[in-house]
Amino acid sequence: MSNRALLEVIALDPQDAVAAQAGGADRLELVSDMAADGLSPSRETFGRIRGAVDIPLRVMLRLADGFGAGDVDALVRVARGLRAEGAEEFVLGFLDAHGDPDLVTVERLVAEIEGCRWTFHRAVDRAADRDALRKQLADLPGLDTYLTAGSAAGVDDGLPVLLAEAARRDEPGYEPRMLIGGGLRLDHLPALRAAGLDGFHIGGAARPGGWEAPVDAAAVREWREAVDG
């Protein structure tokens, strides 16, 4: 069995996707509008990206900035359209006004994407109680990943939390893979890898020219080599 770490890269379009795959990405997170921290791509964009690469794609289900669900019926329609286009993996996560998981919305979306694997994204870093959230979501079908920086402020602040949670990987609610992202830098990797963490997510780090520039295959390759090192 391979012990290769998972490297996931944010892609906005087919050009990003091709460069990320060429650099060694294992999986892409597909989003639009990074000014709003990543919203759902269109069905058409998903289709073009699916036709450009052959690595797994996780598609964001999110229609507004922040961690509230907003128009849940619209979210369900987006999920249904993406499924019809061939999407098989998703990213989602919503909190209520108290910082607790919005289980009604999450469960409705999970029912719509029945049979698909999905990531609970960085809403976990804004939760009132991370441990309680994990236990509340533990039995939802398809949940296999938490995208987290350990803190809303990013990996610098969240590193102690990430290391502590990594040590609990055999406990109920902690079985899903931890995918580390949010201010992640190359110099964070030694401590994270030493703790047994094997999932890493990059966005801006794959774009030396900023978010207005495309993914750079050489930048992704640098991360590929580092996470494998």
From TrEMBL:
Molecular function GO terms recorded: copper ion binding
Transmembrane domains' residue ranges: none
SUPFAM superfamilies for this protein: CutC-like
Domain of life: Bacteria
Family designation: Belongs to the CutC family.
Name of the protein in question: Copper homeostasis protein cutC homolog
Organism listed in the record: Streptomyces wuyuanensis
Lineage of the organism: Bacteria, Bacillati, Actinomycetota, Actinomycetes, Kitasatosporales
